[in-house]
Amino acid sequence: MIDFVAKYWETLPDRQALSDCKPGFIWDLVPKEPPKSPESWDKIFADIEKVVLENNTHWHHPHFFAYFATACSYPSIMGDILSGGIASIGFSWKSSPSMTELEMACVDWVAQSIGLPNLFLNSDEGPGGGMIQSTASDATYVAILSARARAVANYKASSKVAWLYSTVSKALPKFSLKEVLKTKPTEYAVDEEDPIITFENHDASVIAKLVAYCSDQVHSSVDKGIMLAGVKMRKLKSVVGGPLNNYFVEPARLEAAIKEDRSRGFIPFIYVATVGTTNTCGVEMLRPIGEICNRENMWLHVDSAYAGSFALCPEYRYLIDGVELADSFNFNPHKAMQINFDCSPMWFKDIKEATCYFNVDAEYLKHEHQAVAADYRHLQIALGRRFRSLKIWFVFRALGIEYIQGTLRERVKLGDEFAELIEKDDDFELFVPAHVGLVCFRHKSDNETNDKLVAVINNDHRIHIVPGKVHGTLFLRLAICSLSTTSKDIHYAYKVIKECLSKVLQAKNN
Ligand code: PLP
């Protein structure tokens, strides 16, 4: 299988980025009923090309320019092999001590390498710390639920309890579960044997008052997180401008919304800021937004799924300026940091606070070290978790930070090169300036032409891109995704786009 994967990579450019398959293709290739007796590995192996590869989208093809990049490297693949090979489950320290502690060390490595302040480190004496979520969507959801629990706890608690927590908190070990915050079930004795239970920090009567805020440019995962959390959401209209000439929310707009909502009797409880929006790679102003959140007693979560990796290079540290004001921060090394999906570290300013809100301590999960050891099950939806830190450990050691910085700079260079072609072209215009490997551009005419152009490009199958839409204007996004994409491929993409445009304009004129 390793040889097969190596060959796949070597011959990837000979394939087509997008497959010609149609929905339902599987029923011609795979029997509807499971096998009754074992088949030979040779027979199974022989089906891989036909079933899996011929009918897949090749994310690492040099002509794949859709969505955002997904990362891959040989050391990372080795991490996944070892994780699958030893097949341990790490829901608690006891269930997998090395999984838990290597994760603590590796998220600290990542934090230091992108310039996160020490207050987020597991090795720091303070209450901050990090762990690895599966995806940015999970991180956002956990942040929303943590913020929700904090808001409910604050609403219910007397100022005395809040004072007690802040006083005792520093004196206790990092992972100790604080009795003052630990979610306790309240039983209603309608039926003595099967009472109705509500968890006090997740009380629906208070949740109904809560309002979350974010930009109108957030990823769809924020909408989903809010939906699942059952809270109200206010999306604030972004404006174009600032040093990047890209989309962001003006802090005054957030302040006005908070004031308005408080006067209506609602409780503002979280702002989800995006550093590197999916549409245009716009960046929120973390410092002024953070100051407002801190002042208003609101949780600030920072979703930097794609762009966060670029903070590995000192010249892109502007991305996380003000991050020390955030309660939680997350990005996906599985997008641009050579680490295969899934690997989405999340850092908390107070990791034990969130731990307390979701603590469900069944008898069979308890262990003798839980007062002082990290049990990451409390900070995610699922109980079980994989040995994801192996990928960070191998990649950082085998490739080194300087090499990864080089790949990030190459992505930016190629994006800028494509943006230059667009700028020189009379048919097209940049929608916003290219930013860290994402180029947003459009035909100068109207949405209809741009919509048709995207369809013709993707039906042509030589390259793959996806569109974006901001405030009603449709544009094309070209993201530098594959590490095997070169300047030649950028010029090829430009040529294909021009040919497809000719087809669209010809059809329009006929
Ligand atoms: N947030 C942003 C800004 C993104 O761009 C993306 C994906 O591209 C996500 C969240 C979702 O990432 P994941 O697939 O890790 O949930």
Features:
4-stranded antiparallel sheet; 16 helices; alpha/beta; 510 residues; Aspartate Aminotransferase, domain 1; Aspartate Aminotransferase, domain 2; 2 domains; 7-stranded mixed sheet
- The CATH homologous superfamily of the largest domain is termed Type I PLP-dependent aspartate aminotransferase-like (Major domain)
Structural class, judged by helices and strands?
A: alpha/beta
**Within the CATH hierarchy, at the fold level, what is the topology of the largest domain?**
Aspartate Aminotransferase, domain 2
Output the strand order for the largest sheet. Answer: 1-11-10-9-8-4-5
Q: β content, as a range?
A: 15-25%
Low-confidence stretches: none
Indicate the mean pLDDT. Answer: 93
Shape: globular
Kindly report the oligomeric state of this protein: single chain
| End-to-end Cα distance | 52 Å
Instruction: Estimate percent helicity.
Output: 40-55%
* Number of DSSP E strands: 15
